[in-house]
Amino acid sequence: MGARAPSGACTVIVGCQWGDEGKGKVVDVLAGDMDVIARYQGGANAGHTVHVGEHHIVLHQVPSGVLHPEKRCLLGNGVVLDVDQFFGELDGLAERGVDAGGRIGISTRAHVVFPYHKALDVAAEAAARRKIGTTGRGIGPAYEAKTGRRGVRIADLLDRARGADRVGRGIEWARERLRQLGADPDTAGTVEDSLALAHRLPAVATDVGDEIARALAAGKRVLLEGAQGTALDVDHGTYPYVTSSNTTAGGAAVGVGIGPTAIDSVVGVVKAYTTRVGNGPLPSAFDAGMDEHIRELGAEFGATTGRPRRCGWFDAVLAAYSSRVNGLTGIAVTKLDVLDTLPELKIATGYRIDGDAHSLFPACVRELERAEPVYETLPGWQSPTTEARAMSDLPPNARAYLHRIEELGGAPIVMVSVGTRRSQVIRGR
Ligand code: GDP
Ligand code: IMO
Ligand code: MG
Fold first, then answer.
1. For ligand 2, which residues put their CB under 6 angstroms from it?
2. Which residues, 6+ apart, have CB-to-CB distance to 10 below 8 Å?
3. Which residues are marked as active site?
4. Ligand 1 within 6 A of 311 CB?
5. Which of 242, 128, 243, 129 is nearest to 183 (CA)?
6. Which residue, 64, 148, 292, 305, has fewest beta-carbon neighbours within 10 Å?
7. Considering only CA atoms, which of 8, 6, 5, 2 is closest in space to residue 265?
8. Rounded to an integer, what distance in angstroms lies between the CA atom of residue 245 and that of residue 261?
9. What gap in Å lies between CA 265 and CA 5, rounded to an integer?
10. Residue 291 near residue 27 (C-beta atoms within 8 A)
11. Mind listing the pLDDT tens digit for each residue in 25-84?
């Protein structure tokens, strides 16, 4: 047997609630220690906010490590790529002095989101009796095409004639479906619309799995960035009020093309309270007054759609479930500072459903809709945490709150975020 190749480290960052946990902030903080940052699923439905110096940027397609110069940024096969959005974002970054063009790569195996997928998304929502409240970014229809074996991949678009043929067939399929939905088939657009920026793809197309495997073999450090959150996972989330991809850590290996044994650690991101945008149950929702209060304090408006996020108490039933589903090795808690003024805080430690006690997150959304949280109350700290840079800087009641999240979440807290900026963070223990 030969000597083992040197091996780097591979960390997954995964959202553990309904998205918008602050993954962009956490990835940006960790990216300083990484060589490669790769998105593994989702598309432009994601809105990841990064706030560094004068930059306050919402990234939809480009990985959140991009503001660190020289880091390799990749989009894996599990991502669905909106080509216009992607190049628009790259151009926008270049205008702000962030030159990412030469260090970004997209998997040739990734599927593409075309204007006709967006038209289908909007038309399906308009026609649906039970609306999901999607972001309208074409995500569901693009993943449906993928699993239906009708999708168009980056590799197809590298050959103009082949790409035009496959897109033409996609548009025909979409026009038919739009008619069935009672929508205007012309909203599917033309092949030319769909392929307007395809000529820029050869410069960025790559084999992401191969790149990551080589980076790890060379002793480099790789971060796999999740989008959305565990409760929006198509298998493990609050189905059907979910997105159309595997957001959970298992999706990371599949979504970039490495084996699960290559992953060393999984850090789950949780907000210090809970939010949800789009439809579907939120068992620990605040009452109306508190909902508005926290939305204002935490600026809880969707980074992609601008919709108000519903807010609630920290849900430890979901946190424990997420910890198990993702195999968390660590937890990053964000937005602790948003709770600084509250006299007391609640944590949902169980549910009562039809009078019975439940400690497990239910599989069926109808049960979750009837779930009444069982709360534990903790005292607030009522002092600012935004300047804290070590756990010892935090007020004792804030530490006790975090300790309870750690106990109930079943993994150690490895990071606490106390503001939007890169510097506003407590790292390690
Ligand atoms: P993501 O989708 O998980 O990346 O999260 P979003 O960017 O959609 O939403 C998180 C929001 O919270 C953004 O506006 C961030 O700037 C902000 N944020 C992140 N961490 C903190 C924090 O610790 N404190 C405060 N006040 N805001 C934060
Ligand atoms: P990030 O990565 C929060 C929600 C939508 C809707 C459901 C399905 O920023 O955390 P889709 O457009 O994916 O078909 O919508 O999922 N959703 C998100 N909610 N954060 C996100 O991403 C989301 N991406 C999708 O609101 O309820
Ligand atoms: Mg977001």
1. 15, 18-20, 45-48, 132-135, 137, 139-140, 227-229, 232, 243-244, 277-279, 303
2. 212, 216, 221, 222, 223, 224, 258, 262, 263, 264, 265
3. 20, 48
4. no
5. 128
6. 148
7. 8
8. 21
9. 19
10. no
11. 999 999 999 999 999 999 999 999 999 888 899 999 999 999 999 999 999 999 999 999
Predicted model pTM: 0.97
Structure tokens at 36: 């490669």
The DSSP result for 223-274, as a single string, is: EEE--S-GGG-TTTSSTTSS-SS--STHHHHHHHT--GGG--EEEEEEESSE
Residue 370 near residue 352 (C-beta atoms within 8 A) = no
d(CA 7, CA 81): 30
Position 371, amino acid: A
Q: Tokens 């079943």 belong to which residue?
A: 410
Residues in the chain: 429
| CA 121/CA 82 separation, integer angstroms | 14
Mutate to test the pocket of ligand 1, among 25, 37, 339 (most ligand atoms within 8 A of CB): 25
- Give me the phi and psi of 375, to 5 degrees please: -105, 150
Indicate which atom in ligand 1 lies nearest the CA of residue 336: 23
* Mean pLDDT, residues 283-307: 95
